[in-house]
Amino acid sequence: xxxxxxxxxxxxxxxxxxxxxxxxxxxxxxNYPEEKRPVAPVWRGWHVLKRDDQGRERCTACxxxxxxxxAEAITMTAAEREKGEESLYREEKYxxxxxxxxxxxxxxxxxxxxxxxxxIFLTDRIVPSDYVRQNFIFGKDLLVxxxxxxxxxxxxxxxxxxxxxxxx
Amino acid sequence: xxxxxxxxxxxxxxxxxxxxxxxxxIGGDIVPPAMxxxxxxxxxxxxxxxxxxxxxxxxxNDARPLPKLVAxxxxxxxxxxxxxxxxxDEVLNARRGVVEFLLINHPLDCPICDQAxxxxxxxxxxxxxxxxxxxxxxxxxxxxxxxxxxIKLHMTRCILCYRCVYTAxxxxxxxxxxVIGRGDHAEISTFIEKAIDNDFSGNVIDVCPVGALTDRxxxxxxxVWFLKxxxxxxxxxxxxxxxxxxxxxxxxxxxxxxxDQYGEVHDFICNTCRFEKKALEDWTIEGPRDIDRHSxxxxxxxxxKTVTVK
Lengths: 168, 310
What we know:
Largest sheet of chain B: 5 strands, mixed
Oligomer: heterodimer
Strand order of the largest sheet of chain B: 2-1-5-3-4
Number of helices of chain B: 6
Number of domains of chain A: 1
CATH topology of the largest domain in chain B: Alpha-Beta Plaits
Shape of chain B: globular
Order of helices and strands of chain B: EEHEEEHHEEHEEHEEEEHE
Radius of gyration of chain A: 24 Å
Radius of gyration of chain B: 20 Å
CATH architecture of the largest domain in chain B: 2-Layer Sandwich
Number of strands of chain A: 5
CATH class of chain A: Alpha Beta
Order of helices and strands of chain A: HHEHEEHEEHH
CATH topology of chain A: Alpha-Beta Plaits
CATH architecture of chain A: 2-Layer Sandwich
Structural class of chain B: alpha+beta
Strand content of chain A: 5-15%
Largest interface: A-B, 16 and 15 residues
Largest sheet of chain A: 3 strands, antiparallel
Strand order of the largest sheet of chain A: 2-3-5
Helix content of chain B: 10-25%
Structural class of chain A: alpha+beta
Number of strands of chain B: 14
Number of domains of chain B: 3
Number of helices of chain A: 6
CATH class of the largest domain in chain B: Alpha Beta
Strand content of chain B: 15-25%
Shape of chain A: elongated
């Protein structure tokens, strides 16, 4: 090494110059969750199990999402609707337990495509991070949308997408 | 022995064999589908019309073709007969029409139905039917009926193949259910919903090509494609004891008879084996059953034998 290389000063200054230049460049990161990046309308994130317009669960536990799932992330247990539960479930069979393992899920959207009842949709919500694996097994409490209008999750863009596909 | 040619394949069969059975001896795609014919039930067949074929040459003596499409499960072969099944557009069109008729009153509740995945009508409509219906009127509906503690009758799904009636007639000493009413009003009934308490009554579930008769002990428990069908046997004084145990892990969810490639059971099993013996220690598990790899039942199962018989 020559004398100038041995004192390291020019190399440090060169590096600092690059750092200084980056102060004035446009940042690549955003302050999530205060700030969110725009996503495509077909963005596939956190699933939702939709209710119909009368607030009844659409899912009938047919198991087609689970058999379509390439990661085998979905499990369910079906139950028969009792008398008096007609306002809760649309069909005579419903999913008593419906779990998606979010660590296994690859967000491919095949469950959405397989669903004959238009019950499951992937939304633009990002699955929150956590410290415990157990918390990533999402049950019906985290998947089924609420009954009140403000707790409903809007998937009209995705439904339109399905409708268009059917007409093609 | 008469020689018959089906879709160009020649086969020699004993006198009195039907076209359907001759085609089954050849095997493969040329076998006509059958919804009502059941080889182990005497007198079955001739009702659903899905097995229609065209006889292009009557026999060696009389080369004229038969004027109409014939039901292959009822028509016996003659020497020199030539039959067109999938090679004839007329047959495929007629079959599509038959499927449309069968689906007129059939509800679209496959996501709920326990038969889905092993339903012959589902396979048939997938192969031949149209995706939409042209029927605009209300479908006929019935109340669900519990036939005894083990069997559930969804009359709405019934296609009136009469298989269960023949089963009840031929496997049990006294017949307690039959078809009442005529035409569109015909329905399977037990007369005043009388419970069937015969030891072999559970076989009506296996012979039903659709989900009209289902197992109440398995009702909504699981879907068939989540379960692994395993050949199993036990010492039973009433029946052969040869059955299929549908397992999930070490749990037996349901027991059925052993169906062959045409979905037909030859060793009928008794109700004790079918409904009451669901503990692992009741059965000797022989190994995984051969399931066609195109079937939804073999989806996500990696333990099939490497060579499968279609």
